[in-house]
Amino acid sequence: MASLKAIRRRIASVASTQKTTRAMKLVSSAKLRRAREARERARPYVTAAVEMAGSVPKALFEPFALHAEARARALLVVVSSDRGLCGAYNANLMRAVEEKERELRARGLEPLFFAVGRRALDHLRRARATIVDQRVNLAPRAAKAELARELAARVLKQYEGGEIRQAGIAYNVFRSMFSQQPVYRMLMPAEAPQPEQAQADARGSTEPYFLLEPAPPELAPVVVRFYLEAEIFAALLDAETGEHAARMMAMDAATNNAGEMIERLTLEMNRVRQGTITRELMDIVSGAEALREF
Amino acid sequence: MASFPLRLIAPHGVIFEGQVEQVTATSPVGEFGVLAQHVDFLTALTACPLILKLAGAGYRYYVVPSGLAEVKDGNMTILVPQATPAQEIELEQADTEMKELREKLESLAIGSEQYAEAERAFALAQARWRAAQLTAPRA
User: 0.90 cut: is pTM over it?
Assistant: First the structure.
């Protein structure tokens, strides 16, 4: 059995860890609130961009349909977190990315990776994947419109240049505080989004625009660029919100576990202390008995 | 004058939402204005001052680097990467910026990637200067 001193030291150590995890939970909770607000503020932009792309004549998207003559490569943007301590958030994503990689290879496409976040970069390096570019250490905010713009421009440039035949983004979608699900969203070849019936009804007429300026060959890249930027921006915001939610839950669980451990150790400490007291009492009583016998 | 609803939206949120009588902006084809009951249309925006004539009275001026504007069923929506209120732009500073960028542009080889980038920056500086002129107090 451990000594009283060792147990006390252990309790102090666990209490110190608990303080850290509690502080991290509070920090994550504040970051989560900010991320959710940013996600809400971006919603009108993302919705409008998708609706506009869904309202243009489908022919506008034709130049962005499948390029059969392009090189048999696929660009996969992987959005992870920079830091750990967020439960299975990154591990689940990487499992999904590996699965996607196998699927791409089975279809004869060589996967190229663009890592967003330190965890994705480290994992892809360990797996010896082909990393074409990276953006890491993005604190305090990873979900920035500038990054979405840069990624969209890169995807469009490589696709139009025939360097890739497909592009997509893998990230954790924020479903709730308890659920962040890895998803893969295809970016290229681009298809005009189909508005849901409720959305279409709310929007009124589904007639195509009467007037397009400039002419479709010039307008199409602008519409597709805005659409891609909005999709990527929404993905970055989702990933960021999910990361903070996952870290908050992980830190909450760690704080609770530390509390339980402190309780268990305190019980053990009391038992050991009681044992020591009893032993000492026995010694005193037997000493007194021995004296009386004299 | 009849008015119509307008939403000016950037990725960080809705910048303006309200009734306007007229919107003036610039597309790659040239400057255009939108009044109430405009036909449904979709257009790209180039770097330009965005002028909103508010319903009732008054104007609001912004500078946008690019954008996508649509009129659908009498509602107008403009998507922009960002929009700077013209009041925040100092005319003198905008003038200096524009001159510097013009010089830089003239020193670059036409057709290069740097030239295209400098051309975009110059177009934005020009739009900032025009917007600052619109809001500058008259002498």
Answer: no
